[in-house]
Structure to design on (747 residues):
């Protein structure tokens, strides 16, 4: 596609480049939409913590050029008979899975049932040889014939030198992601765009790589094309399950950003400095988490963490209950950093009953006691200061209500500072408390997001009215903003709210963001 | 790790030091090996907290400590609770290397875990120096009597044949847990503590890292797992 039409919105800095040091003195007091990257509310004062990537595009750029191609494919006619099996038509094969004992208790689901077919989003992972590796619902064995059909489709289109990207039929989308040696397939009834679905498949791919490294994956399949990868992934399916759940629920994964524990900057700075002082030769990243919120992150000079890698760490820590008592020590591949090797993560809670989890990432697998010692030094330093108490206090109210912003009819919002890769968002108000409502809300945000990031027609702003809420999305070079108003709000009100909200965030940015990230 | 001086739970009374002369504290490296799901983390949690909770599979390894007071010495158990999942096998030698005690855990209701324990034994035996490690065969989930697949006699026979010690436990009910830890402590102290340089003494800030005691690295790269 080199000679093709100019690709919109992807002209940013290359994903893996280190960010330029942006020491901005001229931080506008009253930011307006359109202010430049690096001065928006929440932008770090010295250097960014993360790999400075045009995050979302960075994730999907590889897939980008094929989207148009897929559009052509799309129009090429009726879905075939085979396809109808995939998208849950009546013609779905009756599968005789009676004699196959289900492997995982929670997955005992009849794959020929209506319930199985009606799940909003299926995800399948298979090897290039067509061996099932993962399914979100049901067991892989029971699904082998469905997987077979998928493989047939993939290889059919690959043979035509035209890699298949997606198929649309009857309110169902089937999206393919070929990431040698794996093939990932998403089947969705949501209104998410192909691009969004591909992004989610990418996450799943990285999740698997983070457990095994790409080098190992390649090695395995080079030696034995028919290898059953479930052997090596056994016991880790819950990580993929949880990641899929997060993708439905966590705005951070949508925005390619993470959110922080609100904390006075004076306290946060002391915590960061204490972490910075507790360094060691092979220590690359020190990450302090409060649940799903970042308290601080200190990194080795010139080493940057990618938000995807950080989300994989969040998922690992959030999914396992076992390291609470003692200290965990595990190999982990951070695929956006290096798909070839493992880091070694020391995972421990500051106190057994505490939400505060410290993750120390080292390059040396024999570094356990050194990391344990770093943690000890960090704790000793911290316990002498009032910052520890301040942090524990902050944990009692890890979020804020939208009323504090003081904008009438505003129910919820997401604000991402692009240069820092951090976002902030109030807690969901009472009307969005149920799981279904929150997922519906996330669906609306996903929809706005895909309009702003449309592969061929990206929008700068987007307003949408519905019976239940009015929504506004706004993107500039410095930030992304998604606002949710009650249906009583008007478009004029929504637009005037942007300035007001940005002012409020500017006022609160010390607390809501990490403005002075440190390195060692 | 604030529980260093808690008593061994579950009724067995440990002798706290009542003598006036200071009792020395020794470090004991203990590793838990066995298939995923046999209850290693549950046993470890019993050892250090006397609690039972539903746990998720261990990723990599977990490190916990527990102090046990004997009549003439105090032992600080440094417990390495390894992950049973196959993908972590390549890193397991890090943990059993230089261990004073190794618990080979299986689930009495799953025969394949009993077979797997024997594979672990073979692997251990190719690495260990005779007399330097107390190896204990542990049949866990003793509460699952009605679905038992491995009889206690079988466990005992295997132990006798290979020169191991044997106990059946239940992390769920707490059955035989404190007894096991105490027995291991006595064994280790008698068999290894008596040897010259068998156990190292514990200092508040241990800079002699057990990891580094034996620098020969059996694995060139941890990337090598798999078929
Ligand atoms: N009935 C019964 N269940 C137990 C017992 N011990 C552990 N379990 C259960 O067995 C499951 C696995 O226990 P874990 O302690 O996580 O197993 P593990 O050996 O640490 O597994 P990995 O970390 O994957 O190697 C959990 O659901 C426990 O609740 C026991 O004595 N009796
Ligand atoms: Mg475990």
């Amino acid at each position: 596609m080199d000679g093709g039409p100019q690709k919109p919105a992807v002209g940013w800095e290359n994903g893996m480049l280190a960010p330029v040091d942006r020491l901005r003195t001229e931080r506008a007091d009253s930011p307006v939409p359109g202010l430049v990257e690096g001065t928006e509310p929440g932008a770090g004062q010295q250097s960014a913590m993360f790999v400075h990537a045009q995050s979302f595009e960075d994730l999907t750029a590889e897939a980008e050029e094929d989207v148009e191609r897929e559009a052509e494919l799309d129009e090429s006619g009726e879905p075939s008979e085979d396809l109808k099996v995939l998208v849950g038509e009546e013609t779905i094969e009756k599968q005789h899975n009676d004699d196959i004992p289900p492997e995982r208790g929670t997955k005992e689901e009849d794959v020929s049932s209506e319930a199985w077919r009606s799940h909003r989003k299926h995800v399948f992972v298979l090897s290039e040889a067509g061996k099932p590796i993962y399914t979100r619902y049901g067991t892989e064995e029971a699904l082998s014939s469905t997987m077979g059909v998928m493989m047939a489709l993939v290889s059919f289109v690959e043979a035509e030198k035209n890699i298949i990207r997606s198929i649309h039929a009857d309110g169902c989308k089937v999206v393919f992601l070929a990431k040698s040696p794996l093939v990932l397939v998403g089947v969705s009834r949501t209104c998410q765009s192909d691009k969004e679905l591909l992004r989610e498949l990418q996450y799943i791919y990285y999740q698997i790589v983070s457990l095994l490294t790409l080098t190992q994956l390649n090695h395995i399949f080079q030696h034995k094309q028919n290898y059953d990868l479930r052997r090596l992934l056994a016991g880790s399916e819950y990580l993929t399950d949880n990641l899929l759940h997060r993708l439905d629920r966590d705005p951070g994964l949508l925005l390619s950003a993470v959110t922080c524990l609100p904390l006075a900057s004076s306290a946060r700075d002391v915590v960061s400095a204490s972490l910075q002082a507790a360094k060691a030769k092979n220590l690359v990243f020190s990450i302090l988490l409060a649940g799903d919120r970042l308290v601080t992150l200190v990194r080795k000079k010139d080493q940057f963490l990618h938000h995807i890698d950080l989300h994989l760490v969040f998922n690992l820590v959030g999914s396992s209950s076992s390291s609470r008592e003692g200290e965990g020590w595990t190999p982990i591949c951070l695929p956006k950093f290096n798909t070839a090797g493992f880091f070694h993560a020391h995972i421990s809670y500051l106190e057994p009953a505490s939400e505060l989890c410290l993750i120390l990432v080292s390059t040396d697998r024999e570094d356990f006691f050194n990391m344990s010692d770093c943690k000890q030094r960090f704790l000793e330093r911290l316990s002498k200061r009032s910052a520890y108490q301040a942090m524990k206090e902050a944990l009692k109210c890890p979020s804020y209500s939208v009323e504090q912003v003081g904008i009438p009819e505003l129910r919820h919002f997401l604000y991402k500072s692009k240069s820092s890769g951090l976002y902030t968002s109030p807690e969901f108000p009472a009307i969005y408390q149920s799981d279904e409502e929150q997922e519906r809300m996330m669906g609306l945000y996903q929809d706005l997001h895909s309009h702003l990031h449309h592969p061929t027609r990206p929008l700068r702003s987007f307003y949408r009215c519905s019976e239940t809420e009015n929504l506004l999305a706004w993107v500039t070079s410095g930030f992304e903003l998604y606002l949710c108003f009650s249906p009583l709000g008007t478009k004029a009100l929504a637009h005037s709210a942007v300035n007001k909200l940005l002012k409020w965030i500017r006022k609160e940015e010390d607390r809501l963001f990490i403005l002075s990230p440190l390195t060692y | 790790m604030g529980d260093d001086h808690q008593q061994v739970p579950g009724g067995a009374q440990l002798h706290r030091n009542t003598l006036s002369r200071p009792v020395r504290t020794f470090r004991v490296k203990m590793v838990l090996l066995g298939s995923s799901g046999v209850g290693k983390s549950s046993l470890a949690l019993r050892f250090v907290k006397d609690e039972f909770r539903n746990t998720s599979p261990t990723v990599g390894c977990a490190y916990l400590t527990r102090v046990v007071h004997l009549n003439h010495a105090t032992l600080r158990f440094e417990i390495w609770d390894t992950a049973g999942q196959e993908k972590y096998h390549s890193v397991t030698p890090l943990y059993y290397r230089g261990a004073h005690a190794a618990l080979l855990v299986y689930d009495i209701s799953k025969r394949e875990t009993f077979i797997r324990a024997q594979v672990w034994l073979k692997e251990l035996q190719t690495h260990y120096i005779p007399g330097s490690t107390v190896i204990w065969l542990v049949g866990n989930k003793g509460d699952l009597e009605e679905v038992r697949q491995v009889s206690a006699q079988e466990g005992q026979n295997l132990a006798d044949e290979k020169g191991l010690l044997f106990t059946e436990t239940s992390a769920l009910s707490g059955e035989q847990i404190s007894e096991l830890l105490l027995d291991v402590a006595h064994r280790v102290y008698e068999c290894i503590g008596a040897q010259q340089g068998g156990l190292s003494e514990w200092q508040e800030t241990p800079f002699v890292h057990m990891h580094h005691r034996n620098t020969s690295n059996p694995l060139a790269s941890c990337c090598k797992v798999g078929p």
Summary: Chain B touches chain A at residues 1, 36-37, 41, 44-45, 48-49, 53-65, 79, 81, 83-88, 91, 94, 206, 209-212, 222-227 (CB under 8 Å). The helical segments of chain B are 40-49, 93-96, 111-127, 152-162, 177-193. The longest strand of chain B covers residues 25-33.
